[in-house]
Amino acid sequence: MHKLHLPRLGQTMERGTILRWARREGEPFEVGDILYEVESEKAVNEIEAKLPGTLARITVEEGQECPVGTLLAVVADPGETLSEEEIEAAIAEEGGREAPAASGGGTGVRAPSSARAQRRVRAMPKARALARELGVELAAVEGTGQGGAITVEDVRRAAGAAPGEGPRVRERRPLGDVGRTMARVVTRSWHEVPQFVQMVQLDASALVGRRRELAGQIKRSHGVDLSYTDLLLEAVAGAAGEEPLANSSLVDGEILLYEDVNVSVAVATGSGLLVPVVRWAQALELGELAARLREVLERARSGRLSAEDTAGGTITLSNLGMYGIEGGTPLVTHPQAAVVFAGAIVERPWAVSGRVEVRPTLTLSVGFDHRILDGVAAARFTTALRRRLESPNQEG
């Protein structure tokens, strides 16, 4: 007999959500077979079996969230038959902790008595997950599925029929796994990180001209269309090298200054906001940056991000210029020290040598962890970023 526990799939991973079990209780598997899918740190990972066996008892169901190290399943080794007493004893060794609900409550695996109680109510896994989301008691729901099993539609009907005052609900949208992860991350950042934002408006003429000038060359050499996000990424990596505090973390009373600039780039997907990482950005040429960014963005949009794709970010870049947003107050993502938010490029009157010209302009909003950077250190980073975008050929 051996046990499956939730592994740590990234440096900052604390919890994960079991999205799907590829094997059911009683099914055998071999080394390398996919056992389950888990979402962690805004990535979905398929977990392979390291040893052969048969799933004797699943202790964390699909849709449930649990901390790293939680017992997920008890496995019978090849040729082994486990009794109910042996399975219950194996679970009890873990402390008999109750499995958390998908909404985030609880801290461990389901107790044996709870497991037996769950099995007395026949419900599809997705129906159980939805019931936890909507706060529906499955024991009170009449199942219309095969053999009286409770379906997703049964749960939705039960939720809609619940009495209560207030405005009528047009639609219920479960937050979803990516949404729960984002909510947890931003809530932690808001509560734990004292933050401030510096905003600067810059002349984007050089930025626009550089993109136009290099687009053909980058297309020929790396096969990608050069974007403003690529140029912003290059500038962020360079500015972080000039002001190392912007590329650091506060850990156990010490500031860790990172040698590598790993830029987390925010991207919208059908399942929510994801933040894949472009690693070693300080060491890559512009064409390499553009190609690397395109690779991780494509994996993000197709739902193929791995834990490695989202782990280890040291600073964040968010560009909402394509939506016409000109400025904002971005949140620093714990444990990073800075986040760069780029707005839309907008033509404005601009003073040039005593005269007024219409120039393309860009507003940068840069958020900082005030425990790590004071206003002066932050200004050094913001100024370096501005210079690299306005005068890319000027030495720092």
From TrEMBL:
Xref: Gene3D superfamilies: 2.40.50.100, Chloramphenicol acetyltransferase-like domain, E3-binding domain
All copies of domain Peripheral subunit-binding (PSBD), residue ranges: 122-159
Residue ranges occupied by any Lipoyl-binding domain in the UniProt entry: 1-76
GO CC list: cytoplasm
Primary enzyme class: transferase
SUPFAM superfamilies on file: CoA-dependent acyltransferases, Peripheral subunit-binding domain of 2-oxo acid dehydrogenase complex, Single hybrid motif
EC number: 2.3.1.-
Keywords linked to the UniProt accession: Acyltransferase, Lipoyl, Transferase
GO molecular function, one term: acetyltransferase activity
Annotated region described as Disordered, given as residue ranges: 94-120
Cofactor(s) the protein requires to work: (R)-lipoate
Family per record: Belongs to the 2-oxoacid dehydrogenase family.
PANTHER family listed in its UniProt record: DIHYDROLIPOAMIDE ACETYLTRANSFERASE COMPONENT OF PYRUVATE DEHYDROGENASE COMPLEX, LIPOAMIDE ACYLTRANSFERASE COMPONENT OF BRANCHED-CHAIN ALPHA-KETO ACID DEHYDROGENASE COMPLEX, MITOCHONDRIAL
Protein name as catalogued: Dihydrolipoamide acetyltransferase component of pyruvate dehydrogenase complex
